[in-house]
Amino acid sequence: MWRSIMVALTKSDVASPKNCFDFRVGLEGEAAAAAARVRTDEDLALLARALDEMEGLRTGGQLGLDEDFAFHLQVARASHNDYFVSALQSLRESIYDGMLLARTASHVVLEEKMAAINTQHRLVYEAIRDRNAEAARTAMRQHLLRCKKSTRHWYPTGNDLDRDLYDPAL
Question: Quick check: helix, strand or coil at residue 95?
């Protein structure tokens, strides 16, 4: 169903989410690092809840866009920097576009993608929990770069999704 909706995408339709991913790598990497430095126990509990809600969608074919965005927004909130939160909220529509593109890959099962995303989110969460700012920054940046890479199958060049999106060694 989603693939049929996306067939008519133009180059400019794909460029916007791609550019948004580029921006988010820096923005959210720094938000995750800040969250690791200043998060409270309450922030950590809210982040764990957002992670649990996302992980609860492993099966059933749900895209989990709201749950995914909620996790990223909670990371920004845990930074205690309103600029991170405002920037992410202002990008909501573009973020959803990018998530939709990333989840509708041509040959990778949705449950496999969701499991990979959950694993990547868990790495971000654990780094924030452990107050490891560099690990949080790296985990978030790698997560977003993998998601960006997973949108390549929509590019006009016809490149298909590489399995390295789900390779934990990346």
Answer: helix
Q: Give pLDDT tens digits for 95-139.
A: 998 888 888 765 667 788 888 899 999 999 999 999 999 999 999
- Choose among 111, 98, 109, 112: nearest CA to 150: 98
pLDDT digits (tens, 9 = 90+) for 65-88: 999 999 999 999 999 999 999 999
Residue 82 belongs to a domain: yes
Give how many domains the chain has, as a whole number.
1
pLDDT grade for 1, boundaries at 50, 70 and 90 = very low
User: Residue 121's domain is classified under what CATH number?
Assistant: 1.20.120.530
> Helix, strand, or coil here: 150?
coil
Structural domain that includes position 96: 12-166
Determine, yes or no, domain membership for 6.
no
